[in-house]
Sequence to fold (471 residues):
Amino acid sequence: MTSVGSSILSALGAGSGIDTASLVSSLVSATREPKEGAITSRQSLNSSRISALASAISSLDTFADALTEVLSGAAYTGTPNSNDTSIASVSLLNGGSPAGLPAQLTVDQLATARVISSGVSAGASGSTVVGTGSITITTASGQTATIAIDSTNNSFSGLASAINAADLGVTARVVTDAQGTRLVFKGATGAANDFSVDVTADDGGSVLAGLGWSGTDSATMSSSSAPQNAKITLDGVAYEYASNTIDDAISYLRIDLNKASPGTTVTLSMTQPTAGLSDLLKEFVDAYNTLMKALNTATAAGADSSSAGVLSGVSSVRDMKRQLAAMSSTPLASTGTYRTLADIGVTTNRDGTLSLDTDRLASAMESDPEGVTNMVNPKTSSAANPGLAKLMDSVRDNIEKDDGPLKLAQERYDSLSGDFTAQLEKLDEQMANYETHLTTIYAAMETRLSALKATQSYLEQQIEVWNNSDS
Fold:
């Protein structure tokens, strides 16, 4: 692309014999390069720091999440069991391990829902017209939805879709069998979840007109199931629930009631963990050291700037390493002989990495296996007994908090990235102006030199004429 300066020179004519375009280009380059180099060097370092901080945070998140997942898995918590899954089955909920097992359960009654169905419309299908008007569904809790039935939804299928879209806790489905087609309504399980249906039909003889139900069966609508609560007895105490899925009878344990069987006792229990705590701690130390060594490399001072780590001198990363290194001495339990990782042989080295004294760990496990297990992986985490996973999560959350050093450093480097881009754009503008300025100066010089050369040529011609006339 032709520059403004070279265009000026071309227009005026380079009569001096000096390559002023090349001279201007060289002068602009000589001015630009040190400034541009300084900016791009700082820009490159800043970009590397942004990338390294993002990588460090990602690695920390991966480590913390993996630790939580491993410790909450069946290998370290055990597996819940029911000795009769046809009556009740169990599964773990996230957040901890069930306490108080084994427990004795009797399922006296399942939770059921109100189910009502219309009379059979022989020869009909889902697309059969049911009539127009409106249908109002009212739940026992007082929620109401009125649905207009017109030419867009006046079929069995259209009406069912409209009822489901009302999202009132009452669903509808179209059932077609050898007898014909009917509309079936179903509410939520539980004694408090009954409902009624009120209809206003444009045609008193339509199918729609017969869909009303307010607690009494009729020739066109009948109930096949009444709403009731599930009734169980757990360790001798009677309870009622609106659902057959129970999450709060035993902490961190879901109980699914499958069949009522009064008088039959089901035993709910937990198997022992299959994975050893010693293996877990070895894996924890190895994974932790991988993370810490990467941080050490990134923050290494180096002999000079070229050999220093990309995060050398970044105080927020030093703070991150400090918080991680403190984990071995942070209490995981408030009572007992073993309260910290250091107590069972996990200690912090001078470079922040961890070491595991397997002999000391073995001695602790032999002396108090339950105490060590509850310290590292308690059944229920608390402020006084957080366990290793919760401690890791709290350290991670503190490192990554919005007003913490790490997040502030990220924001600062992101801001600098924009500043460097703006500086380069400004330098481009300055250099363009500088080139124009130099070109104007050298163009004026060209004009003067051309005039002088013309005068010189004239004088030389005159001298030659004089000399020739004298001879």
Summary: The first strand starts at residue 80 and ends at 82. The chain has ten helices and 17 strands.
